[in-house]
Please model this.
Amino acid sequence: MQYHIFRYLDQFRDPLEMEGEVLKKRLRMSSVESEPKQPIYPDINYVENKKVLPAWIHSKLIKENSGSGRFFALWNNPID
Model:
């Protein structure tokens, strides 16, 4: 249920602000030598994170690492 609430609230955020957050995260992860590597597993510590993190942060972590939704550009957009 929490997932739907935050997805609903993201509809009213400025799209440029949301894209800027993704771009800043991508630039923080990048290096001169190579592109950032997408994790094989979206949440390697799933059981621990499920217990410790709130549901909305945990779902955001999984979406970031899997590259779904607005985080698609995080892993599939080359930096030139």
Observations:
- Residues 2-76 form one domain.
- Helices lie at 2-10, 15-29, 46-52, 55-66, 72-76.
- The chain has a mean pLDDT of 84.
